[in-house]
Amino acid sequence: MLTSRARLLETSLAITARSTHFLLYQQDQLMAVLRVTPSPFEWASLAHQHLSPTQALSRHVEFSRLITLSQGHLPVSVNCLLASATEWAIKRGYEGVTALCRSPQRRLFQRFGLTSITTDSLHIEQRARGDYWLLSAQWPQILAAVQQPAHTALNSPESHDDRACQF
Hints:
35% of the residues lie in helices and 29% in strands.
């Protein structure tokens, strides 16, 4: 699924060895996956011609490879997955989240308080799937976003058998 250049980058940055993956199951079916990685970030190598990570982001984790079963992103399920990953990062002393994503994921991450670091989208040479956005937020910004009435309406209780697991 990854290009040879992407595999080489992951190897050189030891992404797999440094990452924690969160899996979300619903009734024993895998519904979503999220990779969480501390600095150095994959996006810093991909977007180095546009910007470089600041000291402020060095205590963040990168949320990446958010993959869901459906295009609708199963809002409650994905919220659960992101909450589990956020809790994990807070317990380990990280200060926030950064993410390099395409437009559909950008809208999702913005609901959680992440904002664009750049004014325009970034074109990543190594990826042929469109333009990307670089987002970031610290925990207070994320907490404020999830406490908004529009966000809590998306999280109304439903009868789900959702389990977020990490490995």
